[in-house]
Amino acid sequence: MDFLVQLAEGFIGMFEEGGQTFIGMVTGIIPTLICLITAVNAIIKMVGEERINKLALKSTKNIILRYSLFPFLAVFFLTNPMAYTFGRFLPEHQKPAFYDSAVSFVHPITGLFPHGNPAELFVYMGIASGITTLGLSLGPLAIRFFIVGLIVILIRGIVTEIITGRLIKKREQELASQS
């Protein structure tokens, strides 16, 4: 009988915890996101979408900058998850690779710039506590983490762009053969 009571309490407790998480989002991240979205859209309207689009296209012409500097700027200035909105200024065939790069960078930026993704800070701090327990400095860890992150997002961006290009060509060939 106690087992059934514990099972029922655990079952309801799971939904209560989910409700608390939801309330935390409603009073925490959701208003922040709405404010960020509003601010970014206001800036875009003031500067002009056409100008921003041209700037983004110019800054992403080079494949290395497109999948290193551009995602870094997105995560640094807009933080996670708003950083992904930078992709709106890219041609459709580059959006999947940009997203892959940006989403892969929200953790490595945390050591040097914790504002980029504060939700990931607990992972970094777990690693950092082991480093500090050994009496070592966190600076080299943060820098290495950041540099490796930039290398990884560059590789992921390039590979994803290649894969996306092949899938687009394959789809175009399939559609052409059906016509």
TrEMBL record:
Question: Membrane spanning segments where?
Answer: 22-44, 64-84, 121-139, 145-163
Check the record and name the Pfam families matching this protein. EII-GUT
Q: Name one GO biological process term.
A: phosphoenolpyruvate-dependent sugar phosphotransferase system
Q: Which InterPro entries match?
A: PTS_IID_sorb (IPR004699)
Keyword set for this entry?
A: Membrane, Transmembrane, Transmembrane helix
Q: Which GO terms describe its cellular component?
A: membrane
- Is the keyword Transmembrane assigned to this protein? yes
Record's protein name? PTS sorbitol transporter subunit IIC
What species is this protein from? Alkalicoccobacillus porphyridii
List the taxonomic lineage: Bacteria, Bacillati, Bacillota, Bacilli, Bacillales
